[in-house]
Amino acid sequence: MAMCQYVTESMAYMLSGNMDQGAKDFQLEAAISKFMHRAVGIKSGPSLAEHVHADLAPRPSWYASEAAGDFGATVEKILIRHGKGIRDEQFILKRLADAAIDIYGMAAVLSRASRSLNNKIETAQHEALLTTVYCDEAFDRIRQNLDSLHDSNKLSNDTKMSRIATEVIRT
To answer: Mind telling me which InterPro entries this protein's record contains (predicted)?
Structure first.
């Protein structure tokens, strides 16, 4: 619970910082932050290591970079496969949304913990620990969500669940 609270606060800090700097487009970030608040109550993409504190550079930042790259590549494949029809693929969109929320959470906690470590805040080591665990667990969830988008059995089950829902609505 403490980790979820830390992630939620980090998202709020990141969002408010972007807004304070005059960012115009922050609706997605606001929606993700709102979702996380409610939940608590490019393969090999660019490395984040140079942007985060050295204590977080080995694994947590690698996880975030890798997840962002995997997400981009997966979204591209999904859009090529479904085109505009993607708006009707709710199971796929849910998995993509869940992955995006976790990636945003990783970026938020990496930013916040790095700032705390750089400024030698009293709670910095605890924040680094929260960040490390969150990024590790989020990476596993992201992989599971993205991998399921290429799993024929999962996709077949999605089709079956859609059919079940349609039949339930009819009766």
So the answer is: ACAD9/ACADV-like_C, AcylCo_DH-like_C
Axis-axis angle for helices 124-148, 90-118 (nearest 10): 160
Query: What are the C-alpha distances in Å from 34 to residues 9, 41, 63, 118?
Result: 11, 11, 24, 28
Q: What count of other Cβ atoms lies within 10 Å of the Cβ of residue 100?
A: 19
Q: What is the pTM of this model?
A: 0.72
Q: Tokens standing for 23?
A: 């960012």
Burial class (CB in 10 A: 0-12, 13-18, 19+), 122: exposed
pLDDT tens sequence across 101-152: 999 899 899 989 999 999 999 999 999 999 999 999 999 999 999 999 999 9
Written as six digits, the tokens of 145 are 């969500």
Burial 9-25 (b: 16+ CB within 10 A, else e): bbbbebbeeeeeeeeee
Give the amino acid at 20: D
CB 109 within 8 A of CB 135: yes
Cα separation, 110 vs 161, in Å, equals 37
